[in-house]
Protein: Elongation factor G
Organism: Paractinoplanes aksuensis
Amino acid sequence: MRNLGILAHVDAGKTTLTERILFLTGATYKRGDVQDGNTVTDFDPQERERGITIFAAAVSCDWNGHRLNLIDTPGHVDFTDEVERSLRVLDGAVVVLDGVAGVEPQSEAVWRQADRYGVPRIVFVNKLDRPGADLDAAVRSLRERLGVTPLVAQSPIDGGVVDLVGRRTLTWPDGVLHVAPGGDPIARQRLEEAVAELHPAALEELGAMSDETLRTAMRELTIQNKAVVVLCGSAYRAVGVEPLLDAVIDYLPSPVDRGEAPLAALVFKVQTGRQGRMTFVRVYDGTLAKGATVWDAVEGRAERVGRILRVQADRHTDVDRATAGDIVALAGLKAARPGTTLSTREHPVVLEAPVTAEPLVSVALEGRTRADAHRLPGVLAALVEENPSLSVRTDSESGQTLLSGMGELQVEVAVTRLRESGVAVTAGRPRVAYRETVVRGVTALTYRHVKQDGGAGQFAQVVLDVQPLDGVGFEFASTVTGGRVPAEYIRAVETGCREALAHGPLAGHPVTGLRVTLTDGATHVKDSSEMAFRAAGRFGLRAALEACGMAVLEPVADVTVHAPAESLGGVLGDLAARRGRVTASNGESVTALVPLAELFGYATDLRSRTRGRGTFSTRPAGYRPA
């Protein structure tokens, strides 16, 4: 078995490659195309309308006696959280690169995500049939932008590739694979030397390395994340797909065979559709049977598995059980969320949950009628359950319902899904998530909390130092000595300080980028309590922030624009008007750091400025002073 994801920058060809894999393995009877809107994995109406992948879709197929569980992930930066949750449950990944562009901004972003989870990867350089495609340039971009050691296992030729490991020539003259003897001795020697530099056993055979030694060494280097096997082809023309499937089996890891261990399965996605509520899980250990009762150790709650479904995008097949390594959907679970671990009550287990990205863009929503307003909270709750990178809150000042997400496109898709659910809503103009930060701190700010209301009183005194912290985040420390503030009260002070971060003194935005140190304090023999010190921490930090030098931060994005050379001057002027700072420019592309608030509607403006020929991509680049 192989559990793998297809990762890439938007429009690199992930979905087309997945379609070719499903057709070649017999999982589908015809080849789907993104342009025709008939692909298996992009089954949502919005995906077919926009021509991009929005939701991670799972499919299964068989190749040479192995079951492949594939997850086709989005390439657009707004849906990076779908990639994050998928990577948490995968054993390996195929990273697709555009043969012309090489490593692009979102390619780099998904690569770093895979690094975080230690997922072994192989690379497929796609679209080598396009004018300007260059395998060597794509390999250089892997070295320079990602810092990896590529093991180039194929050489491109007209209509096919040379398999350097098997010393064969593979061609697809009529869309069907033809195999002939023949190799590329110089390229094979370069591959052997690259492997020998990293693998001792291969080094011993350098100069007379067998195919089996080379293949085994490449597998071990891939699984250890010391090197990356690189293959090439054209998914659209079905060139290079069969050797890619062989490489998945040869080089990517299988689920670890742990024997019969107690059940441990991780929920990574929840989806509501025609089948009702489906909970997607990866089984790490043990066996999950239909009708079984499973245990959520964090919530202390039991749930019953009604059905187990083998998933083929939007089609499903019932199975009786799932074993270690399986990725399946469960029907019948009522409360499990992404990140929930399913185990047994006798052997409770909690696995590390996927990291959820922080929302950056918000829109205000209002139901158009009283009935719509009544239904809105329930439908929003279902949306957030499906996609934890969305969040919903009520603005304390305006009373408006705010929907937040990773970017303008993600929020737009969510609002469209609301309307598809039959809820008529009015959406306000998107707003970005500003922050406030400390640029000049204060020391020894003393705050005394005293309250007498007839009964037991409250007394707490704290002395706080507040200093700027590099980047975003919050740190709390205590240097109190001599027991002047007991340990349990110190924890209460920290809790109060965290509560004070919700609203800054400048404009009420959340506060980040500061270090708070409790240096001293005082207690009362009768009136001190955790509640009193929590209040002292909250009001004391608010007073300290009023005395600090503060600044507003705004989210910024790295924007890469590709446009014809004759339009580049207008593009640069427009980026400058949007407060963008150009960081690189060459030929027909420009990269700039632009405030996220200035990018709303940019796609339409760029199309009109470049007569429809300009494209751009973005990725979050943190916060900068507004």
